[in-house]
Amino acid sequence: MHSSIAHEKIILASKSPRRKRLLEQFGLDIQVVPSGIDESRIPRAEPEQYVESLASAKAVSVARLWPKAWVIAADTIVVLDNRILGKPADRDQARLMLQQLSGKTHRVLTGISLCCRSKKCCSTRAVTTEVTFKVLSDLEIEWYLSTGQPYDKAGGYGIQGRGAFLVKRISGSYTNVVGLPVCETIELLLGNKVIEFRASKTMQSKSKSGE
Known about the structure:
Largest sheet: 7 strands, mixed
Number of strands: 9
Radius of gyration: 19 Å
Strand content: 25-35%
Structural class: alpha+beta
CATH class: Alpha Beta
Number of domains: 1
Shape: globular
């Protein structure tokens, strides 16, 4: 028996397997429907506002197609000295990003949005984690580039893969850096009564027996 129960249909407006796995670990049945919005049409703004706008636009676009479902959308950006670092287009751009991040502290921001059109509900917020890189040698950068992992990730790295060795410390949510702040996302689902937690039969039996 799962420890979480979904009362409504839940759609993830993202093709990210990492985000899907983070939600599925709570026993949730997630349907994936990528939004397909053109991110270049979202006006640039301050990082928090910008990432919230991206997440909201994705959630709303899918909610229009599935008006009775609860749609979760997220977007993650890396910010260094108030400059947004996107996904590197090629090896040279990835190298430059890693060189810029080397030995410095940057911010990872994820906007999360939960929308249900039939209930006229849309809640959006941004979560920030500070990440400090070790000082990287040229050899370390070239090795990481050779893994092929930097190219589909904001800032040119992924903390959940081989890029973990780049990170000296973090302050804040680890799952936020992976791409979905689990604590805040589950709070949104619980607060809107989309899911509830229930103890398993085994836990209930132990509670009654006083163990």
